[in-house]
Amino acid sequence: MLPRPGQDQFRVGLAIDDDPFGRDVAISPSLPVAGEGAVSIDTLTWDGVPTVTFARPEGATGELWRRAWIDGVDHFEARWFEAFRLSKNEGRGIISQGTRDWDDYRAEATITPYLAKQIGLAARVQGLRRYYALLLGADNVARLVKMDDTETVLAETPFQREVFVPYTLTIEVDGDHVTGSINGSTVLAASDPGSRLTAGGVGLVIEEGTLGCDAVSVSPAGK
C-alpha cells in the first residue's frame, strides 16, 4: 500500500524463509503521493545503525541465526535454553555481529555469569582484540575498557557481582564518549578522543568461564 495523504513514512513486513531476525522495513517515498494503491520494491538496501534485537527466533529449527555471529569462543551451541550460552576455557573470547556502518549506538543485554572471570557487552567491535566493552569481574569490579591490541581501562568502580544472578548491561558509544550502565543506572563514563574505534559491531564477552544471555539489542545513540 501507499502512504495516506500527509503520511511521510510507512512500514511493510518481509517474510523470508529461515529469516534470523523477523523484520519489517520503513519506506520513505522520495516524491509526494496521494491516495492508496500498490507498490513494488525493485531493490532494497540499508545503512547506518539499526534498531534490532538479536535472539533465537520463535520456533526456530535451524541455526542460521546463530551462524550469523562471528564466533571467537570455545563453546557456542544452540542446545541450551538461552539463545547465547558462551564458554571460554582459557583467556578471553567474544562473539560479534555488525558492520562499520554502526558508529554511534546503544547496546543492551541481560547477562548471567556462571563462574566466569569476566563477562561483558562490547560495542564498536572490529575484531577479537579491537572493541570497547563494559565488563563485570569476579573481583567485584566493573570496568569500562578499550581493547586495541592491548587493553586500556578507561574507568572502573567497585561492583558486587553474584554468580547465577542476571545483570542488564548497557554500553553507549557516541562520538568519543563511552558510557556503561548496570541495571538501568549509569555507573561508568569516559572520553577517548583520537581513537580509531569509531565504528563496529556489537558483541558478548566471556573470560575463563560461562555466561548466559537471551537477547542483545542495538539502537541509535540517544534513543
Task: Report a brief summary of the structure.
The chain has 223 residues and is mostly beta strands. The chain contains one helix and 15 strands, in the order E-E-E-H-E-E-E-E-E-E-E-E-E-E-E-E.
Q: What descriptors fit this protein?
A:
1 helix, mainly beta, 223 residues, 2 domains, Jelly Rolls
Topology readout:
Blueprint: E1 10-13, E2 24-27, E3 52-55, H1 64-67, E4 70-72, E5 75-76, E6 84-97, E7 105-114, E8 118-127, E9 130-137, E10 141-148, E11 150-158, E12 167-174, E13 177-182, E14 185-191, E15 201-220
Antiparallel strand pairs: 1-2, 3-15, 4-6, 5-6, 6-15, 7-12, 7-15, 8-9, 8-15, 9-10, 10-11, 12-13, 13-14
Describe this entry's structure for a reader:
- The protein has one helix and 15 strands.
- The chain has 223 residues and is mostly beta strands.
- The protein folds into two domains: 45 residues, no CATH class; 169 residues, Exo-inulinase, domain 1 (Jelly Rolls, Sandwich).
- Strands 3, 4, 5, 6, 7, 8, 9, 10, 11, 12, 13, 14 and 15 form a 13-stranded antiparallel beta sheet that branches. A two-stranded antiparallel ribbon has the order 1-2.
- The radius of gyration is 19 Å and the shape is globular.
- 29% of the residues are buried.
- About 2% of the residues have low confidence.
Strand content: over 45%
Residue-averaged pLDDT: 87
Estimate percent helicity. under 10%
Q: N-to-C terminal Cα separation, in Å? A: 28 Å
CATH homologous superfamily heading of the largest domain: Exo-inulinase, domain 1
Shape: globular
Radius of gyration: 19 Å
CATH architecture of the largest domain: Sandwich
Residue stretches low in confidence (pLDDT < 50, at least 5 long) are: 14-18
By secondary-structure content and strand pairing, the structural class works out as: mainly beta
Number of helices: 1
* CATH-defined fold name of the largest domain: Jelly Rolls
Major β-sheet profile: 13 strands, antiparallel
Total number of distinct structural domains? 2
The strand count comes to 15
Q: Could you give the order of the helices and strands?
A: EEEHEEEEEEEEEEEE
Would you state the CATH class of the largest domain?
Mainly Beta
